[in-house]
Amino acid sequence: MITDQLIGFAFPFLSFLLQETVAKGRLASAWDKVQHPDLSKFLVIGALLFIIGVAGVLTRRNIIVIFMSIELILNAANLNFIAFSNYLQSTGRANAVAGQLFAIFVIVVAAAEAAIGLGIVIALYRNKETIWVDEIDILKW
Amino acid sequence: MVDFRGEVGLNQFWMRLSNSKNNVTVTYYSFFKAKRQSAIDNRQSAMTLHGWEAIFFWVFALAAILAGLLTVMARNAVHSALFLISSLVSVAALFIILRAEFIAGVQILVYVGGVMVLFLFVIMLVNVGAEERGREEIFNGTRQVAASLVFCFLLALGLLAAIGTGVDAMQKRDAVALGQSTVQRNADEEKLPAGATGTSRITKQAEVVGGSLYRYASLPFEIASVLLLVAIIGSVMLARTLKQEASADDVAPEDLSGPGVEGTIVMGVIENP
Lengths: 141, 273
What we know:
The complex is a heterodimer of chains A (about 140) and B (about 270). By secondary structure, chain A is an all-alpha fold. Chain A folds into two domains: about 1-35; about 35-135, Helix Hairpins. Helix content of chain A is about 80%, strand content about 0%. Chain A contains five helices and no strands. In chain A, helix 3 (about 40-60) packs antiparallel against helix 4 (about 65-90) and helix 4 runs antiparallel to helix 5. The longest helix of chain A is centred in the C-terminal third of the chain and has 31 residues, at about 100-130. Chain A is flat and about 65 Å long. Chain B is an all-alpha fold and about 270 residues long. Among the domains of chain B are: about 140-190, no CATH class; about 240-270, no CATH class. Chain B contains 13 helices and two strands. A two-stranded antiparallel sheet of chain B has the order 1-2. In chain B, strand 1 and strand 2 form a beta hairpin. The N and C termini of chain B lie far apart (about 80 Å). At the A-B interface, helix 2, helix 3, helix 4 and helix 5 of A face helix 4, helix 5, helix 6, helix 8 and helix 9 of B.
């Protein structure tokens, strides 16, 4: 069987790779980084949330889901603010809470934006009877 | 480190596994055996999570990412809203791990309690039946989706590369301050009063944030209140019906929809069909 041959070929190769990485401490250091997440992990999570939000804004047709994706983007920005605030506090600046203040203002702006945006959605739906963004094209010539 | 010196077998394996070239790390066993303090002493850089904090970090981070993905992918808009709520709650838990308890509370109260309820109301006001039954396509055309996915992939590459280099450089810059303040910060935390259950300590984060909000950011605070007022008035004005708008402007509704002005009002402008 070709699968047996493949496994028979692949297994020594994989075990060799595993031994190499273990011997060089790469696996251990990667596992160590998993066990001790630091600032960069929070930033990566924030970046991933941001990208998911951007993908939602660019690909979805439902205007309400687009608004939700915008909320996701703002939340990712908040996560970055809070992570940097905590990092600055851990460098000895005990009162470095500027990041948390920014996060509060981001939440305020997000609430205002949601209220206005959903008001626009209601007005649009009342007049155009649609929530698909590709059908709302009265500004396109 | 001292704690598992006498043990053999698996410990030896883990120790050998964790002995890399330049740093001796505490792995696996220290989760359950070594004291938290010794784990902290072993790491020079601060803002590194240990033990249960690390476990909860991964749980909530993965939950936030997964719920965010499902928000974008869900066919039903109500499901999207519920997944977004779980994503927001997971991010609030991450805020708590980052010792920003006040922001976590604000996030849950304002986002989950206010904004998402508003979203759910609007979803139920507009019609989503067609989407639910699968008659309508939920994504844009294939070409747009492909282009935006390529764009997002490039964005991900750029952001991850920037984070990788930037955080390394920043931690190198702050290495001395980080090492010094870790000890100081732990000592400060020990002085805080214990909570009712005795497992946690009552922090002063909310106090510090409130003080800074009025001390350093009082003008933006006032501007934010004006912004919220404008948002209230704007949303009330936008969501008015034709009849309500006409009565507010002292125009009889039959004058607006008479034979001369056939059509509908789109954002204050009469649009003829």
